[in-house]
Write a structure and sequence with these properties.
alpha+beta; Beta-Lactamase; 2 domains; two-stranded antiparallel ribbon; 8 strands; 47% helix; IclR family transcriptional regulator; transcription regulation; transcription; ArsR-like_HTH
């Protein structure tokens, strides 16, 4: 995580307010003031400025995020060169596998989901466009960790606070590094219920023309459908084909 040397307090307070509105899906002035630890008058001034610029709206019973953020999100996604190419292939993966498929990129040491697609048998999860997750316990995250520059990988791992999110989560740095070495050899990463018990993921990285990383894509589904044949044959082959198409089409960007 990058820490500002001289953070502007007023800006930080506005961002804190936006975070609260995001987490709570709306809040009253009093709630925000208590959470941030500033006066209601100060909160109101921040909200008034945000409202004037379309970033929040007042619905009478409290404030909520404004639709201006949708416009910002659109432009943020468009800075990812392969976004349109990748989303098309992820849609195809979901349709052909019948499961959920994801396109994820790394930012500030976290995985950020940029697209999800659901096949006819897809499980319902909390993953959505913009969802952030640590890299060490997801298939897409480990795929990106394995193939990013060593110095960057070391920094992210060193800054990671390993947590046993499920009984299968890797919480030992040496064990994670051994798995990343195996992923580099095979080109495929797995998540065996490390994020959500019973949910299995298969992922692989997407490389740019210079060997760097664009991101990663994955297919996730319940363990009862993810038998050995699918995990070692069918799904990896489907993902590799999708990545091949993305990487070939990206050469013209």
């Amino acid at each position: 995580m990058v820490n500002a040397k001289n953070p502007v307090q007023a800006v930080q307070r506005s961002l804190d307010i936006v975070d609260i509105l995001t987490e709570r899906e709306g809040a009253r002035v009093t709630e925000i003031a208590n959470e941030v630890g500033i006066s209601k008058g100060t909160v109101h001034c921040h909200l008034a400025t945000l409202e004037e610029n379309g970033y929040v709206i007042n619905e009478g019973d409290g404030y909520k995020l404004g639709l201006r953020f949708i416009d910002i999100a659109h432009h943020a996604k468009n800075r990812i060169d392969i976004h349109d190419i990748a989303t098309k292939e992820v849609d195809t993966l979901a349709e052909e596998s019948g499961e959920m498929a994801l396109f994820t990129v790394e930012e500030r040491g976290e995985g950020v989901c940029l697209h999800t697609a659901e096949g006819e048998n897809a499980v319902q999860t909390e993953v959505y466009v913009g969802y952030r997750n640590e890299l060490y316990h997801t298939a897409v995250g480990k795929a990106m960790l394995a193939f990013m520059p060593p110095a960057k990988r070391d920094r992210i791992i060193e800054e990671t606070e390993f947590e046993a999110i499920s009984p299968n989560t890797i919480t030992d740095e040496a064990e994670l590094r051994n798995e990343l070495e195996q992923i580099r050899e095979e080109g495929i990463a797995y998540n065996h219920g490390e994020t959500i018990p019973g949910l299995v993921g298969v992922g692989t990285p997407i490389h740019d023309q210079d060997g760097g990383l664009y991101g990663a894509i994955s297919i996730i589904g319940p363990g009862r459908r993810m038998n050995e044949e699918r995990l070692t044959g069918e799904l990896p082959e489907m993902i590799r084909q999708a990545v091949n198409i993305i990487e070939i089409n990206s050469t013209s960007l």
